[in-house]
Amino acid sequence: MANILTLIRVTDANSLGNLIPAYKVVQQMADTYERIKLGHKRWKVVIQRAALIIKELHGNSHKDQISVSSITELQKNLEEIQAVLQKLADMPFFKALLRFEDINSGIDRANRHLDDCQRVFQIESSLPAQSQSKAAMSDRDALRGLLRIVVGNYEEIRRRFGIHNDEQEGQAMVAMEREVKNAKMTDEDAPLEVQVMKRSLECIKTTTGRNVPKQNKWLITEYDLDFCGTIGGGGFSTVSKARFKGTMVAVKTLKDVGLGNMREALEGEIDIWSELRHDHIVPFYGASTLTSPFYIVSRYMQNGNLVQYLAMTPNTDRTRLVSEVSLGMYYLHEKSIVHGDLKGVNVLVDDAGMACITDFGLSKVYSSRTAGAKTGKIAGTLRFLAPEALMGHPLSFETDVYAFGMLIYEVFAGEIPFMGEPDDLVWEGRVDLHRPTSSKVYERGFNEALWQLLSDCISREPNARPRFKTIQEHLCSIKKVESSAQSVYPSKI
């Protein structure tokens, strides 16, 4: 596309004065335009409109009287348009085709921003009134051309859609079938982008003899996600932030450690999570086991996990947090679900500061790796495993209670249990957990009652450990005593 200075009809950007920042954004838009995959003509009109607004303002004899706030508002509108354009430019072609409605809404939103700018500055559009309608017709013609190209052309479909293997092909087939079904229209009425997907899907099925892979009700394909970067990880997974239907989510990608053989077990655990609804269980949005590596999508919690949250807010009510964890665990056990890997990093904190349990059941999928052999990869989990689990017995309600006792220790002591002890001694059960003596631990709310509860939870005899119903009753009593003490001896401000 033409250099923006040419559109503005100036030779030196420095002559634009206080419009230079706005000009730079429009130039960015022009550069980004080269990488968009669909909607070219309409986006070109958007960029031309933006450039002509700057041209009109620059040619205004009263431009020095334009308020700073108006220029700032112009800058903001242009930056929002550039952000949308950048997002679309970063999409591969097939993802852009699936998101064609997003392209249309992005263009509409961009034009509304420019309409607002023209109203603020009282500028008449210098583009012909029919420019946008002509651009829309040209974009539709481009889609018709694409439709003619892909009909019956299997290799061209794979090339354009970025399909390089059977897994990717299966995922693309699922995505196309879903879009076609959602359209609920006849061939004549369906939008051109839907017709392209319908014909492409038919061609793939005819050429390969493949059926569309099974779709789980919780399926979220990678085409549905806009990734925003990695935010954490551990021995078995990495966690990324992403947008899904306008909502920020966390995507846990499971590292490829033979999961192909564990697909059925993982899908079973995902089925269970998808049915859970509780204030102290992290909300589940979906997952994918179509392509490797597999991933799970849940609500993004900006406060991070319990360990991170306590580091950021050291004066928070820790008894309340462990009580909330016990409520979530009671709910899981009532549903006959064993967590298997309860610890601080597997408890997230929502925007309201409430504890929410995550990652339950994944330990079952990885059971041969988490409880069957000594491995440094699970050192963090090792210190939360009950003695019977270390001896190879299956994870159970009782091992969850043991881990909860260790979680109480972690929350109040500010460190994992047996910190500093060699792994071998912990594996062999040759170390005992000692009561914390630091004054800081007691300032955080730790007391005799919590130590007694913790001790009961980590009893070496599984049958001697309390159930979560009993644990919750004890914690309620502890909270009542704390509340009574605070009312009698209010803290000084």
UniProtKB/TrEMBL annotation:
Keywords assigned by UniProt, alphabetized: ATP-binding, Kinase, Nucleotide-binding, Serine/threonine-protein kinase, Transferase
Residue span(s) of domain Protein kinase: 225-477
Keyword DNA damage attributed: no
Residues that bind ATP: K252
Keyword ATP-binding: yes
Gene3D superfamilies in UniProt: Adaptor protein Cbl, N-terminal domain, Transferase(Phosphotransferase) domain 1
A biological process term (GO) from this entry: cell surface receptor signaling pathway
A GO molecular-function descriptor: ATP binding
Family: Belongs to the protein kinase superfamily.
Protein name: Kinase-like domain-containing protein
Source organism (scientific name): Boletus reticuloceps
